[in-house]
Design brief:
This protein is of the alpha/beta class and 404 residues long. Helices cover 43% and strands 16% of the residues. The longest helix has 21 residues, at 352-372. The protein is globular.
Length: 404
C-alpha cells in the first residue's frame, strides 16, 4: 500500500481553492480507464515462450515504462536477457547484436506515432531479426515498414507515450518475460480510483502532493531532490522524470526534478541539497520491507576496530535494510534540522501491485501539477524544434552521401 507523508512541505491549500474546484469538475484522463487486452498478452507470451533474448526498441515513454517494470520486477530474477535500445550509439548497437543471435531473439519495436526516425533507424539495425511492432498510426513509417515486411503488429492505444505504461506498450514486453502484468494494472487502477478528480484534496494523495509542491515552487523552491531508496525501484527514474518534466515544465513554469538513487546520491548531490542554493525541497521514496534480507555475519576480527565513533563489531547481525533506513533517516533528519521542506513516499514492499500504485500515483501527480498551473499535461511543445533540426541534419547528410 502506498502512503505519503507531506511532513514539512507546505500544506495550507486555501490559496489554491479556485484551481482545486476546477479540478473536481474535470473528467479523469483516458489512461485511468484503459485496460489492456489480456488475451493478446498471454497469447504472445505463450507464442514466444522459447525466446531467450528480447530487444526492446523505442524512445521516451515507449520504453521508460517497461524499463521501470523490468528493473523492479524481473531484472534480478528472470532468466531472459533483455536489452533496451533507446540510442543510436553504434557501440551499444554492435554490443547488442553480438549478444543476440537472430534465431534466439525477438525484437520489439515500439512507437505510438510510428514517425520517430531514431526508432526506424534502430529497426534497420536489426534487419535479419524476428520483430513484433507496436504502433498506432497507420500512416506512420513504422506501420508502413511492418506492412511491407509482413511483420506481426499489436495496436498501440490512443494514449500518449509517457502515460502508456498500463497499455500494450509496456504490458506486451512485460508479459513476454512473465511479469505479473494483471497485478500491476490492478495496482494502477486502485490508485486511479483513489486519486480520481472528484476526490477532495484531503482524500487524494496525488493532488495533495502536487499542490504542496506548487506552493513550494511559489516560495522559491524550484527544484525537487528525490532520492529513491530501492535499487529495483530506481528503474523508474526516467519514467517519473519524463512525467514531471514533459507534462509540467511549460511556459516558464514547473520544477526541476532530480530523481536519483539513494544512498549513492548522498556522495554527490547531498552537497548541493544541503549547501548549494536554497531552492531544493526533499522528496524521499522508500520501500519499507525488502523482498529478501541479508544479515551481516559475526566476525571476531572486527573487535577493537572503529570507523569514527562506530565500533565495527557492533555491525554483526545488522540487517542491510536497517542500514538503508539509517541512510534515509540521516538525510531526512538533516533536512529537518536545516529547515529544508521535505516529504516521504513509501510502500510496504515492492511487488507488481505496489509498483502499479507508484506508477499511477506519479501519472496523476503529473496531471494535477499541470492542471494546477493551467497547463495541458498531454503535450510537449518544447521538444519539437530540436526534432526538426535533427531531421534536417539527417536530410543534409543523406544528400551529401548521394552526391558522393
Amino acid at each position: 500500500m502506498l502512503r505519503i507523508d507531506l511532513h514539512t512541505l507546505p500544506s495550507d491549500f486555501s490559496q489554491l481553492s479556485d484551481q482545486l474546484k476546477n479540478i473536481q469538475l474535470s473528467e479523469p484522463p483516458s489512461f485511468a480507464s484503459y485496460l489492456p487486452d489480456y488475451d493478446t498478452l498471454y497469447s504472445l507470451a505463450g507464442k514466444y515462450a522459447g525466446i531467450s533474448n528480447f530487444v526492446i526498441i523505442g524512445r521516451g515513454g515507449s520504453v521508460s515504462g517497461f524499463r521501470a517494470l523490468y528493473t523492479a520486477l524481473a531484472r534480478y530474477r528472470t532468466t531472459k536477457r533483455v536489452y533496451i535500445v533507446d540510442t543510436e550509439d553504434p557501440t551499444y548497437i554492435n554490443y547488442v547484436r553480438s549478444r543476440c543471435l537472430p534465431d534466439d531473439t525477438l525484437v520489439l519495436v515500439i512507437s505510438k506515432s510510428g514517425t520517430n526516425v531514431e526508432v526506424i533507424e534502430n529497426f534497420l539495425c536489426f534487419q535479419e531479426y524476428r520483430k513484433l511492432i507496436i504502433t498506432e498510426n497507420i500512416e506512420g513509417g513504422l506501420h508502413q515498414l511492418a506492412k511491407v515486411k509482413e511483420l506481426e503488429q499489436v495496436r498501440h492505444p490512443s494514449i500518449g507515450g509517457r502515460f502508456s505504461v498500463g497499455t500494450e506498450c509496456a504490458m506486451v514486453p512485460g508479459a513476454l518475460i512473465y511479469i505479473d502484468v494483471r497485478s500491476f494494472v490492478d495496482g494502477m487502477h486502485a490508485v486511479f480510483r483513489q486519486c480520481h478528480p472528484k476526490k477532495g484534496i484531503d482524500k487524494n494523495p496525488a493532488l495533495r502532493l502536487a499542490a504542496a509542491l506548487l506552493l513550494a515552487e511559489q516560495q522559491g523552491f524550484t527544484e525537487v531532490y528525490a532520492p529513491i531508496y530501492s535499487k529495483p525501484l530506481a528503474g523508474s527514474i526516467e519514467l517519473w522524470t519524463q512525467l514531471m518534466h514533459e507534462s509540467v515544465c511549460k511556459q516558464g513554469k514547473g520544477q526541476t526534478y532530480l530523481f536519483t538513487e539513494g544512498s549513492e546520491c548522498h556522495h554527490h548531490s547531498n552537497q548541493k541539497f544541503f549547501d548549494g542554493p536554497h531552492r531544493m525541497v526533499g522528496l524521499f521514496t522508500r520501500v519499507e520491507q525488502a523482498e529478501s534480507e541479508f544479515t551481516l555475519p559475526e566476525d571476531q576480527q572486527l573487535s577493537g576496530l572503529h570507523v569514527k565513533e562506530l565500533e565495527l563489531a557492533a555491525l554483526s547481525g545488522e540487517r542491510l535494510s536497517d542500514a538503508l533506513y539509517a541512510d534515509y533517516h540521516g538525510i531526512k533528519g538533516a533536512a529537518d534540522e536545516m529547515k529544508i521542506p521535505n516529504a516521504t513516499i513509501a510502500v510496504d514492499m515492492l511487488n507488481p501491485g505496489t509498483l502499479g500504485e507508484l506508477t499511477a500515483f506519479w501519472m496523476y501527480v503529473a496531471v494535477y501539477s499541470a492542471w494546477l498551473r493551467h497547463l495541458d499535461p498531454f503535450n510537449q511543445p518544447g521538444v519539437e524544434l530540436s526534432k526538426q533540426i535533427a531531421l534536417q541534419e539527417r536530410l543534409d547528410m543523406a544528400e551529401k552521401r548521394h552526391k558522393n
